[in-house]
Specification:
- The complex is a heterodimer of chains A (107) and B (115).
- With 107 residues, chain A is mainly beta.
- Chain A is 0% helix and 55% strand.
- In chain A, strands 2, 4, 5, 9, 10 and 11 form a six-stranded mixed β-sheet that branches. In chain A, strands 1-3-8-7-6 form a five-stranded antiparallel β-sheet, with no helix packed on it.
- The model of chain A has no long low-confidence stretch (mean pLDDT 95).
- Chain B has 115 residues and is mainly beta.
- In chain B, the strands form two sheets. In chain B, strands 2, 4, 5, 8, 9 and 10 form a six-stranded mixed β-sheet that branches. In chain B, strands 1-3-7-6 form a four-stranded antiparallel β-sheet, with no helix packed on it.
- The model of chain B has no long low-confidence stretch (mean pLDDT 92).
- Classes of the chains: A mainly beta (107), B mainly beta (115).
């Protein structure tokens, strides 16, 4: 039973535009949510996290929004760059991971 | 600085054989995690070590799976009597200290293929 879900397996965005990746979860007791980025044949790398007591965290081009009442979080990347093309995983408490969204940024 | 390393990078084995996968975490990281990623799936948590505490084995899919962490550093994941459904990429990660929000550093993974 998936406790963290990423319902969009893929997303294509033009370079310079905003990328929005979504994630839903079922357990309201999760304390932290993290986003990881994965290139082929490499392990995931940490991107950004948010504590459940916050609703927004920003780091450069990356912003994560948390809506606890909807049990939903999203990762915004703006402006998107071709090097952002990768698979993005959201995770809750570093134990429960979504199935990933493959982002393709078109030059 | 060295990151998390895993060996072997690829392992092909026959059904019914035992395999051992190794993880060298970043020096000083007290937390170590094992995950696996089957084709088209997300990362599935297997086991978690934190310092000298008893490991959290709640994610191990069967008693054929076991893991050890010696001296708080290197970890070995053992799969006995491998089955074809065990084929996956096995990922190891480490992080500083306890805390569900700590950034994890992942190794490149071991791709296991069971024929």
């Amino acid at each position: 039973d998936q406790q963290v879900k990423q319902n969009s397996p893929s997303l294509s965005v033009q370079e310079g535009r905003i990328s929005i990746l979504n994630c839903d979860y079922t357990n309201s007791m999760f304390d932290y949510f993290l986003w990881y980025k994965k290139y082929p044949a490499e392990g995931p790398t940490f991107l950004i996290s948010i504590s459940s007591i916050k609703d927004k965290n920003e780091d450069g081009r990356f912003t994560v929004f948390l809506n606890k009442s909807a049990k939903h979080l999203s990762l915004h990347i703006v402006p998107s760059q071709p090097g952002d093309s990768a698979v993005y995983f959201c995770a809750a408490n570093n134990l429960f991971f979504g199935t990933g969204t493959r982002l393709t940024v078109i030059p | 600085g060295a990151g998390v390393s895993q060996s072997p990078s690829n392992k092909v084995t026959e059904k019914g054989k035992d395999v051992e996968l190794r993880c060298d975490p970043i020096s000083g990281h007290t937390a170590l995690y094992w995950y696996r990623q089957s084709l088209g799936q997300g990362l599935e948590f297997l086991i978690y070590f934190q310092g000298n505490s008893a490991p959290d084995k709640s994610g191990l899919p069967s008693d054929r799976f076991s893991a050890e962490r010696t001296g708080g550093s290197v970890s070995t994941l053992t799969i006995q009597r491998t089955q074809q459904e065990d084929s996956a990429v096995y990922l190891c990660a480490s992080s500083l200290g306890q805390g569900w929000g700590n950034e994890q550093f992942f190794g490149p993974g071991t791709r296991l293929t069971v024929l």
